[in-house]
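Dissemination and training. As part of the outreach component of the grant, students in the summer workshop were shown how a complex can be specified as a set of sequence lines and then modelled as a single object. The example used during the hands-on session is reproduced here so that future cohorts can follow it. Participants entered these lines:
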Amino acid sequence: MSSKGDTDKTREEVLAARQAKKQAKHKPKKKPTDDSKEASQPSVKQLSTKTSESENFDSNNKTNPSLNTNNDEKPKKSPKNNTSTEISSISLNKNQYVDKSRDEVDKAVKIEPELTLDVSKDNVKAERMAKKAAKQAKKKGAVDSGDTQNKVGKANIDNFESENIKAPQTSTEPTIMVKNIDKPKTGVSAEPKCAKIVAEIGGMPVGNETFKEMVETLKDIVIVAKDVQAVTDKVKAINIGATKDEDSSKSKADLKAERRAKQEAQRAAKQAAQQQKATEVKKEPSKEPSVPKEEKSSKPKAVDKIKTKSQGMQKMNWFQHLYTEHDKEALKQMQINSNLHPAVIKLGIQLASHVVTGSNARCIALLDTLKKMVRDYSLPARTEFARGLESQLAASVEFLWSMRPPAASQTNALKYFRHHLTQLPNNVDEFDAKKQLQEEIDRYIAEQIDKAGEAISTAVREKISTGDNILTYGCSSLIERIFSEAHEAGVQFRAVVVGTRVQRGAREMLRRLVSRGVVCTYADISALSFLMRDMSKVLIGAASLLANGAVLAPVGSLQAALVARAHNVPLLVACETHKFSDNVQTDAFVYNEIGDPDDIIDKSDDNSPLKDWRSNPNLTLLNLTYDVTPPSLVTAVVTEQAILPCTSAPVVLRFRLS
Amino acid sequence: MKKEEVQEIFLKILEEEADVSAGVAAIKTFLTVIENYKVTTVRELHLNLQLAVDAMRHCDQPVTAVSSGCKLFMRFITFAKLDDKSFEECEQIMLQRGQIFLDTLLEARGKVAKQALPFISDGCKILTHSRSRVVLQAMLEAAKANKRFEVFVTMSCPDNSGERMHKELVAAGIEATLILDAAVGYIMEQVDIVMLGAEGVTESGGIINKIGTYTIAMAALELKKPVYVLTESFKFSRVYPLNQRDIPKEFKYLSSVLSSGNLSKQHPLVDYTPPAYITLLFTDLGILTPSAVSDELIKLYL
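and obtained this result:
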């Protein structure tokens, strides 16, 4: 373990030695994989293990070579360097995993570069401190030959990855990180790669435009590491710096970085006495870069600090009851020795970061994760299968719901699963029980989602006549299916997709429909009243159908319904019965989901007045996810059983329960 | 079994029995078909009945009630436990059930009329459209119960069936006035309630009825008069029109017209009244709000 306060040279020497050792270890393990699926499978596990805590460094070593192997697959367009290619392909692995499970997870799964930008910006802010230190270190740091550097750099990067993920020897972590950055002379090539890894460990593909930010990020890391004495203090500082980043605006980053340095130094002094052992790595959300992700030790002071920050976040008066503290805090507060299955963690992060969106997609993803959990569940001795699994299920579900509140489809699917779990006989054989549960899940997906979609599509096709203009709002996998199948059946109609700047769903829907050959038009929501005159029908999907017949749908659907009513255009809601819920809601206030307020801001606009909204105490941004359409505005609801009036939803519920 | 034979039977029943509606005649035809044309499997029977429905649709008779009645009939008779019996026994069971269905049907009209009685108050003015046997029976019952009321009947072109209704009402001693179809808006402020029949009740809770019904319902909503629909339950159908154009073509036009090709210049025979315009539906299953129709339909079909 290198000492903390030594000179750069000493650290570098130690690091070089270590890197050489690791290099020797890693090289033989590197080998290209053939099948992308196989690669993505291990890469998935890698990502999972990455995000999950790892107890020993050996697993780290394992992850690295696998990562390296996966790296050899699709090379993305990237800087010329080998390592960068490898590293950049890590991001592809994530994509591959996504592609692989495209049939299971809805096609709505899409990794947005925007997210990366956000993430990387956070990272940037977190690392700006390190940036300065890195600059200094760079000047001092001795640079060897380019070749050695590349090797070392690669090894560094490997280590960097592994350490970013989880380093039991956290005491070395910051210093190693520093070394990683110090080592490569051509900081441009290596650092962006490091940054890319960092971001990609988060699971997001990194765009080229974030390289500079990543460079600064890495430099910041060095600075931070230098300034703080205790290892854990450094880690903590980075963490807290990251948290601060969320609140601070980009333009004031430098000032804040300086302030942060001071605070971190103070904190280091406080906490030097407390922590002795290496900070353990908590499970990290792949959303954020590894550095800020580094485990937040359960220091009360740090926790308090972060809590006060989130309390400072402005809240809208009428929606106080809907705000959750979870945001990014819960991600850090994960327990170290959690028993959660890696697939559960992965799903949680996918849900929280909106990689998986859409009620069918989320439901299928949840069921798929449950299947994995069941498959890998090992029954402890003297425990009944149902009870044991139920307790693990409860823990997993609690985690998932803290990541993102459940959709009605997910709640119902879980109810179904729990029901079958309790139906298992007491002394059932473990293998049989697992098989049965997995079959039940498969049946649920096949019947309730797939077949239901088919039935609905057939029923709606009769309502689509030649020459129709059909308006739809937002993104829905079911509507997409209806349109594509109607088009394939030869009905000549035009689909008009309406979306908003804020929500990405409608553009995604448009892209998919166009690729299927459906004749489409896209319009912003402000054009609704202009378009509605020429529409024959409006067809929207729903997140859920409430017991009073109201429709819970993505925000903006109510607007489409009102304009349709004003122009006497019939409104059809397509909704499978598994989305029907027992709730009753008359407005969108009593229950809703608050989205990320920063999504409202136009990111492409540099002069946006909303950029520094957090610094303005009189300004709050509210991003609601759902709205409620009353049954009086809906002409009919199409379910797989029948085309019904909205008010008959409770009847169907009654039939389902019986 | 030939199409023409079925049509013959159907039309014969319509001719012979004076007051039978198309739906009831269709059910009777069905029973005759089951009796006379022997089959050996249930599936064959189903096919036969399908053919019979198809035949009856091409008779230039209103199709709405025929269609819904037949579907319900088939569902009803096959609802028994037919697994472990020989086919002759099955046939007997189905015939029995068919007869029960028919008897229930014939009683339905009386039940509906009785339910409507309290809603016809002394001295009230009722507006009705065209000729509905159920509404007629309800009014006759009310007259028998010594209620004094006045009825406005629309002429209802093109077949002027309103005139027939008017005649029958006058013959029963009820004060009735024949008005022009176009005079509905004029007369609406004078009436107290609107009573309509229905050729079919849709899943949405709306009705399909003689052309002109929608206009009356709109005027009634505007002047805040309650609209009561009197109908039997076998007219409940799974059709769900979203607007007027969405009504199935077989309902709107006679079969001879449909086969002639160009429909854009043809006059539709029926229109669709959305549930928002209907206050209550009087059926043999009870007095229902439009939203409850779907509930009843689900019970019948699912």
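Chain A has a mean pLDDT of 71. Students were then asked to discuss how this feature might be tested experimentally.
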